[in-house]
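Think of the structure tokens as a kind of shorthand, similar to the way a musician reads notation: each symbol stands for something richer, in this case the local conformation of the backbone. In the example below we present two proteins back to back. Begin with the first one, reading the sequence and then the tokens, and try to describe in your own words what changes along the chain.
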Amino acid sequence: MLKVSEVQAGYGAINVLWGVSLDFPLGRLTAIIGPNGAGKTTLLRAIMGLIPVQRGEVVLDGFPLTGRNTWEMAALGIAMIPEGRMIFRDMTVEENLAMGAFPKPHRPALARNLERVYGLFPRLKERRRQAAGSLSGGEAQMLAMGRGLMSEPRVLLIDEPSLGLAPVMVQEIFAILRDLKEQGVTIVLVEQNTHMALSVADGVYLMRSGKVLMSERAQQVDVERLHDLYFAREAA
């Protein structure tokens, strides 16, 4: 289990997370929902070591991650797919995917993992020689997800995969998330599209103003109350 306990974190003198605690069971998809500024991306960055944890701890199966360097996370089985894709636009699709397997322990499995990614994203195989900058927004999101999978992560952190995509592409991306969950990948999904997030999630957290306001099994979520908390129409 990936466990976040009483974490406080932020940027310099600006604190964003105020003692948040969340559990992410292995093999499940957990969605983190909330408005802009809720602290969702900050939480993922704190887990990945991109920003320091000022208080509290992050633990994966009893192994402390707090204070570890970001470049160590791939070897520990954690990968993050950031908001905005952040692909290498001047490199080809296949070169971008190869970058996901750059750490030495993952290089021997490069060919096998390329085939796995191409199986999940056939469109990427068709475009493997194209510059990544020529891809559509949906294809770029697929590339970012594929690159994250190249290190064979046990835990995949995904930040706003539907952002800016057409509805048909959103459906396609979420179908792939279902496939990954069925393959046993632990997924932490940050998403503002509540209906799509609930359709794939096993568990749901609602965050607002750097705090967790709701923790429920996805099937038990009262959507009306969720939206009331989301839009601050109801006090926590």
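Once you have a description of the first chain, move to the second and do the same.
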Amino acid sequence: MLVACQSSSFDDLAAFGDSANTLKDESAVAFYKNDELITVGKRQFQEKNYGKSYAIYKRAVDVFPEDPAAWLGLAASADMVARFDTSDRAYQQLSRMIGNTPVYYNNIGYSHLLRGDLRAARGYFLKAYELDPANEVTARNLELMKNSVNFAQRG
């Protein structure tokens, strides 16, 4: 007997573990009347399809250059695919839009954590903590950083 997740059909599955919804080709869309790019980008990011979310958010910042959500998505996606040159440009843009907020400091801090720059990451997380000591994301990031220090990376 085969045990697996309970699904009556395979319609929701696609190659490489992506759901079928993530494979829709949206490249021909020329007009975006709402935040569909950001919605699709978020879904891709949540499903850990970072390359796809990176491409979608890159398009989103072209279409909506004043939308901080588009820039945050681009920065986070770029961080996850180690495109730190792109994430640095996105964080520069975000500093003018939402700088001095816990969201900004948590995101840029996490970027530096991914790069292994723990000193800078801690500085940003502490700035987020100063602005909002009750912020759960900041608490998790500080704990993650503490764990990163305690367990050295081995090659």
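Compare your description with these statements about the second chain. Confidence is low (pLDDT under 50) at residues 1-17.
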